[in-house]
Amino acid sequence: MHKDINKSAVNRLKRIRDQNRGFKKWSQNEKCCVNIIHQSFTVKSDLSGVEDIILQNHLVTHAARQIKPAPGQSHKRNNPDLPDI
């Protein structure tokens, strides 16, 4: 994983960890349901952001190599399901 992408993913995961701790406390202390739901949406949003970061890394590192053929090779060799272009 690229350093910048990894750093961004780790930062989001740390934020999710902290949010989950707060979410757990609120649930145990029977805080207002609306606050708990809001916290849940925030965690989901941040987790979606981590997925986006990981997908971006995959596209930049792995998918690009699979699509780009090596010199003298057809793109079909690595990806037989790709259409002719």
What fraction, in percent, of the residue positions are helical?
over 70%
By DSSP, the count of extended strands is 0
Report the top-level CATH class. Answer: Mainly Alpha
- The backbone outline, from C-alpha atoms, is elongated
Largest sheet: none
Please report which band the strand proportion falls in: under 5%, 5-15%, 15-25%, 25-35%, 35-45% or over 45%. under 5%
Number of domains: 1
In CATH, the topology is named Methane Monooxygenase Hydroxylase, Chain G, domain 1
What is the count of helical runs? 3
The end-to-end span amounts to 29 Å
What would you say the CATH architecture is? Up-down Bundle
Radius of gyration: 20 Å
CATH superfamily: Metal-sensitive repressor, helix protomer
* Low-confidence spans: none
Mean pLDDT: 78
Task: Supply the helix-strand structural class.
Answer: mainly alpha
SSE order in H/E notation?
A: HHH
Key structural traits:
85 residues, mainly alpha, 0% strand
Task: Give the structure's gist in a few sentences.
This protein is mainly α. It contains three helices and no strands. It has a single domain, classed as Metal-sensitive repressor, helix protomer (Methane Monooxygenase Hydroxylase, Chain G, domain 1).
Explain how this protein is built.
The protein is built from three helices and no strands. The mean pLDDT is 78. It has one domain: Methane Monooxygenase Hydroxylase, Chain G, domain 1 (Up-down Bundle). The longest helix has 35 residues, at 33-67. The chain has helices at 3-28, 33-67, 75-78. With 85 residues, it is mostly helical.
